[in-house]
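Do me a favour: review this protein, sequence plus structure tokens, and tell me how the chain folds. Record follows.
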Amino acid sequence: MKTKELYRKFNITLVVSLLCVLFITAMINLLVNPYNIFGVPACKLTYLKPESKTQERVTKLIGIKFDQRKLDSIFLGSTRVDTAIAKDYFYKLTGKEAENMAINGMPVEEFQDWLQIIVTIHPEVRNVYLGVDFDMFNESANTYLPIKTKPTLTSKEISMALFSFAGLRDSLSTVTKNITNQTENTYMPNGTKYRASNPKIKNAFSTTLEESSFTYKHFKYNPEKLNYVKFMKEFCDDRGTNFYVFVMPTHITDLQLMQDINVYFDYLAWKSDLSQISSVFDFQFPTPYSNEKIAPDMKYFFDSTNATYITGNLILDYMLNDNPVFGRVYTPDYADIFNNADITEMDILAGDNSARTKFIEAAEDKEN
């Protein structure tokens, strides 16, 4: 009898202990918010989110389900949109809520699934901003699988977000990196990438230029992929949702690389074709911003393809307030005018930036 009583007490103690561990784990994951999905206020120990891109395709879907805000707008796109477009700056300009649902490496085929899922979860969405990149329209096949998820939170998703020990590990890593002020490749509560002086900026440019060089050398423009954009526009039109297309800026070295590898005219044709579906907020062309000097304290770019939140704020200023300082509206009527002007400007820059051209050539040689 005594043995049975001891066994019962042991079981009770074990269950209570496990529940305490789960409760503590949930509270730490909630308050630290390592994946930036709960919307809880950040403090000094949790401000930077170095683990926020871990399993992002999963965590962002969980986050949009947790999100109880009435969303006016959503942003879709690749890393270029993800690192630069700040939802809090959108709110500052409009007084309305938005969410940046851009994902690293997202293929154009995937956008339509995300759009349909998001407006099922948040049917109040009235504006969809789609950021597209030229390299999304490559003929090569993507390893894309249709997304399967329910519009409501599942027990598995709740468990992953609150009770998982992987989440606890990332929470502890988040706190540790905040304490030690590790700012490289980390993100802020508004979702944008943290900007700081980077003494390794030339390495960052070399890396992205090498990656782009490989992509462009194996690139074949496939205009049929524009049908995915067309589908999204028709889907939004049918539900009375405004649909906007924009092209994020890249540094001038990226545009010069396109010229060197002879895909620049395909790139111009792509923008012309894109404008046949929808007018395009265009930010990827030669400007004083894209021609920023490569230096550790760069203001507008992290590397040759990814812009900072300062650039993202200029983009929002233009799209929302028609601030003429940065950007243009690319339409079929202006396609030839813009393309010819860009070709002329690129030729001028090629002659003015011999040091930068050598930098590009070195990156190409390294990739070979």
About this structure: Residues 68-158+185-367 form a domain with the Rossmann fold fold (CATH 3.40.50.1110).
